Amino acid sequence: MSRSNARTIRLALLAGVASAAAAQGAYAADTTSVESEVTEVIVTAQKREERVIDVPISMTALGGETLQRARVTDVQGLARVVPGFTFEDSLISSGARARIRGIGSPTFTSGVETSVSVAIDGVVTGPTGSGLSNMFDVGHVEVLRGPQGTLFGKNATAGAVAVVSRAPTRDFQAYLNVSQTWDDFSDKTNFTTTRTEGAVSGPITENTRARFAFFTRVDGEGAAYNNFKKTDENRRNQWGSRISLVHEAGPLTLDFRASYVETADRCCGPTFREVDPSAVTLGNVPLLLRLAAANNIIIGPKNRDSMASDRVGEETQTIHAALQADYDLGNGFSIRSVTGARKWNSYGEDDSERLAVDLADATFGNITLNLFTQEFQLLSPQDKPFKYVVGVYFYDQKLQDAFGVGGALGTANRLQGLSIATSLNRVKNYAAFANGTWRFAESWELLGGLRILYEDQSLEGVRTGSFFGPNRPFNSISTDDTNWVGRMGVRYNPNSDTSVFFTVSRGYKGAGLNNSNSGPFFSPANNADPILRPETVMNYELGTKNRWLGGRLQTNVVAYFSKFKDFQTSAFDGASNTFSLRNAGSIEIKGLEVDATAQPWRGANINLGAAWTDAKFSDFRGAPCTALQTTLRQCPITGQDLSGRKVDGNPEWQLSVIGRQDFDLGKIPAYATVEYAWRSKVNYNSDLDPMLVQKGYGLTNLRLGGNVNEHVEIGAFVENLFNKSYALRISPAPLLPGVTSQYLAPGRIFGVELRYTY
Questions:
Q1: How far apart are CA 112 and CA 104, in angstroms?
Q2: pLDDT tops 70 at residue 614
Q3: What does the alpha-carbon distance between residue 97 and residue 401 come to, in Å, rounded to a whole number?
Q4: H or E stretch covering 693
Q5: Quick one: which of 292, 296, 293, 287 has its CA closest to 272?
Q6: 278 vs 87, 286, 298, 300, 575, CA distance in Å?
């Protein structure tokens, strides 16, 4: 680490300590006016129920009530409230990606897994974007930063997101939440959304309790308008339900949760953002400019008008089931079984070039994912100096992928030259793991964990049709590997309100099987390298977690350094006009993360999250060139050298602040919430094309609500108060060198909400 970087981290740590000290002094003048301490979420990041302060991991834990107040209803929404977490949208779920500390997932492929693992009720959701979905009736969410593969399953080199649904209750409870939002983006479309969520919970028998939960989301009109077809676009229609059962029979407790979610989205097609002045005469760009003028489209960062000539949308069906069985062996020991099954199907259609003529219109993708997981754990007593969990794990994945592209190249036959690529990806993973803590002195603990794993992967496929060139015959590749992940460290906690820890951890993600967009491992840029090398990371963390003033102020500060080797990444390749996969050499990341929660005075709650992330390619030779560089023959034969450059998809700075004040409005208990989230600029592609940069922006949300009586709450809110225009993703436009497309986020949104609880 350089001297300047070390100085930066020292200054940041000193600033955090100074802030805590100043806050302690400020609160000391009025501690009697605060009625209760900050509510603390109990987490299971180490397979046990623990307070956040006792977990030596950089993490953010958010309770269901906090998420509901902030209107976080999917994984994407976590980017507003969790430091170091970002999300990039896409046309279909398999193209979306979550990132932690700047590290995310390759997209548009089924043969490479995510670096950010997502688990729902203890069961991982697998590759692609199948887990980046709706959240409803949530008990709490844990976002764990840094390698988590020791205890969290497989391939969590960047971190993990654990979503835990609400459990059945011992007494009867019910709630119904209905919200309506609207926004006038233009004179052509009025973006509206109606969302409902509810649950009924209670006992069935003396030893059995159940919970039924559901949600629906219906967008009236979309956030974009198609000037060519005279229809609105980018709207979502979704619904889902979950049944949960808990049965207790002496020492045995069974917890079963199963959900079904279905979507029928006309979403999310991009609009044209920018044309490089040097590209106006290249390839199909003159055609784009003529058609844009003919369809009254003004290309620019605020453009919400499209002219796609074919259907854009995705339909998905998801079944997710988890069965946890706990058996108390006596003397504090217990065994646990976690069985999981998941089936996810996605069918999406797209007009690849987004033009009002048929160049590459017949584009579709059909993905079917089947998962089965089984885990057994032995947990030691919680109150002993040496605490541990040991276990074994099995993961079985079958993923079928069909991808088709065709186009008439301007003629009337949209299926001319249709190419269809089909593939089957199988993965089996076996692991044995152990994790423990040993309190060897009154205030000191040693931490350690190890996971030994074996993974077997295979990929087979075939491509027919002529759109991408000649047919490709049946082909198959396979690989297997035995490897390890682990962590070790030390924790100092002189009392229940102070924890200081230092940890070293190693993460591992298995080899990638290169199945790119143009067919099963047949992208021109990747013919010689169908198997990507495994991705590894060494991570070092120094953190302090503290509770001040009897728990009314809680602060978590973590400084870290990570080094990735053979990072698996995806980038748009200008030579093949597709997204290609490759190993990006090495990446170095250093940063600082701060979480703080406080009750400074009666009825007030403040949540602060901040992250500084300095992520760079320390070695990325042979990186893909941009489409414009390739077209203008400015790309070296060996590709670009991006060593020393910033990693794509990573804002260097992130900040979120949520303040809530409870008060009485006459005889009505009321509250007001102000939320502010800001992040610095970000480049959205690993070729680091300067055209793909979203400038930094800040968002302000307001909310006002109150209880009409003990059962009914009403509220009103506005999101993106100052109507900031920003892109959730910027990407190169296929077949149009020097042109970019964007997925614009909604503008200012107004809403009302009604909540009934019993």
A1: 12
A2: yes
A3: 18
A4: strand 693-694
A5: 292
A6: 31, 12, 18, 16, 18
With residue 12 as reference, give the H or E element that holds it: helix 3-28
Q: CB within 8 A of 449, min separation 6: which ones?
A: 150, 151, 433, 434, 435, 436, 486, 487, 488
N-terminal to C-terminal alpha carbon distance within the chain: 56
Domain containing 99 equals 3-757
CA distance 246 to 221: 40
Q: Considering only CA atoms, which of 303, 396, 414 is closest in space to residue 358?
A: 414
> For residue 214, which amino acid is it?
F
Q: How far is CA 688 from CA 104, 178, 304, 610, 692, in A?
A: 16, 42, 24, 25, 7
Residue among 655, 545, 658 at smallest CA distance from 610? 655
Count of CB atoms within 10 A of residue 409's CB?
13
pLDDT given for residue 469 in this prediction: 62
Position 686 scores a pLDDT of: 80
Give the C-alpha separation, 705 to 713, whole Å: 7
pLDDT digits (tens, 9 = 90+) for 1-21: 444 444 433 333 333 333 333
Q: Which stretches within 394-538 are classed as H helix?
A: none
Q: Which residues pair with 218 in a beta bridge?
A: 194, 237
Q: In what order do the strands lie in the sheet with 739-744?
A: 271-275, 739-744, 727-732
**Stretch 727-734: mean pLDDT:** 88
Q: How far apart are CA 60 and CA 661, in angstroms?
A: 22
The label of the residue with tokens 């423990």 reads 436
Collapse the DSSP code of 168 into the 3-class scheme (helix H, G, I; strand E, B; otherwise coil) and give the result: coil
Asked if omega into 268 is within 30° of 0 (cis), the reply is yes
d(CA 658, CA 696): 19
Count of residues making up the chain: 758
Q: What is the CA radius of gyration of the chain?
A: 26
- How many structural domains is the chain composed of? 1
Tell me, letter by letter, the H, E, C secondary structure of 555-606: EEEEEEEEEEECCEEEEEECCCCEEEEEECCEEEEEEEEEEEEECCCCCEEE
CATH number at residue 621: 2.40.170.20
Question: Which pTM does this prediction carry?
Answer: 0.87
Please tell me whether residue 287 adopts helix, strand or coil conformation. helix
Measured distance CA(703)–CA(671) in Å, rounded:
8
